[in-house]
Structures are given as C-alpha cells and as structure tokens.
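Problem statement: downstream parser choked on a complex file, so we are re-checking the raw output for the zinc ion run. The parser issue turned out to be on our end (a line-ending mismatch), but while we're here, posting the original submission so the record is complete.
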Amino acid sequence: MRGEAREYNSPNQTGYLPVCYLRGRTMQMKILTISLSRKIKVNSFVKMMHASISVIAIIILVMPGSGLGWSSKDLLLFERVHQKAIENVLKNKVNSKDLKILQDQQVIVDNAQKAEQSFKHAMTGIKSGQQENIERPIFIQEANNFVKNNLNKAIDAFKDGHEQEAYEFLGKAIHTLQDGTSPAHNPFQTWSDDEGIVAIAVHLSKERIYPDDKSVRAKLEGVVQWAYDIFVKNVTLPDNYFDTDGQLLLPSTYLK
Ligand SMILES: [Zn+2]
C-alpha cells in the first residue's frame, strides 16, 4: 500500500518550529532553521537571531487566522484540537490512561507529513507530475482502508487483552476521521510537498484552535463517538467512512 512510511514513535517529539512538524514542509523554513540550529556551530549572536526568526515565523504562520481548526500540537497560539475533542467525548467512557493513549496518537500520526501519507489526514497528496483528479480517488480509498484496518486491529487487540495496542489503533482511526471534518482538508483537498509559505500559513490558520462553529464542532466530536461506538461494537464496522467525493459518511444521529 502506498504511503506506509515510517512514523515517529515518541509523541513528545519536538522540532524547532511549528512549520517543521505541522503540515508544512517549506524548504525555505527548514533550511533556515536546520542550518541555523544544527549544521552551523552557532555563537550567541546567531542564537539570538535564530530565536527572533522563530518568533517572526510563528507570527507569519498564524496571522491570517480564521479561527477554525485541528492542530494536535501544544504550541503557542495553537490548541490541541484533536485531543480536546477526544477528551470532550470520551472522558466519561474510558479511563485516563486509555484517554492519554488516544491523545498521544494524534501527535504521532501528525508526524507523518509526506505527500504520500496525506490519506492519514484525509487529504490528497500530490507529487510533481501527478494529477489531482487521478490521485484523489486513490487517497480516498487509502483513507477508507486506513480507518477500517485500524478499527479492525483495535477490536482484535482489545479482544486479545492488548488494551494499550487497542487504543493506539483506535487513536489512529480517530485522527483520520477528525481530519476529514477540517475545513482545510474536506473533501480531500490537495497537498503537495512543494506548498508555498502562504498556502501553509492559510492552512495552519484554519486548524489552530477549537472550532466555534456548532456544525463543524458537532462533526469533529461526532466522528470520535462514531469510532468509539464501532470499537465497542455498538455499531457494525462500515467498509467506507468517506464517499467517492471524499465526504464523510458520518450518520446524522451523531450530529447533535
Ligand atoms: Zn492530521
């Protein structure tokens, strides 16, 4: 299957700037920060410059903020949207240890940011020379497979008494479903490895804080409940979670 690239295992992995581990791969920023912080032996003046550039970069990235959003990172001006929705829905249904496992998975999945891994974020990843209309159905199918496989594995692991693994798989499935409710992703919008800084800034601004819009919030939390109901077998496991246009197939009973 395409896109099964390595994921980082530590949920605490941190980078130098949000742009290094959010949905951004701006070469300009990476080259700038990596070269300043890793490749060159820095003196105190360069360190000071680096800190200033970091602050400026963060401000640039969040300035166009529209106030909708799904960040998973615990950063200045960003809310842990994925984790907050999970807590809102499941805090009285799972214990705190399992809740944390679910929440930690959000950071782990968000470390998979290559174009070919975009199905994990309900997006279409485009590499140079590829066409959106050809790639989109492939990524929708990959997302459907990813959610279904992880829910299946979660159910099986729980049945076999492997609680930690079960909640890790469930957390992965929840992530993709939640990203499918993001205005910056739905319905499987295109993402490429060559996105410019403006596109990244606009994208991040839509995903940085918990959504005010009631219908968006209902979907964001509704998919968490849906995945959990499938996991505990209140609902049978569907084959598909997104239709052929990339729209979520969340049953209307979850939209309150
Ligand atoms: Zn994501």
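For whoever reads this later: Residues 109-110, 121, 175, 179 surround zinc ion (CB under 6 Å).
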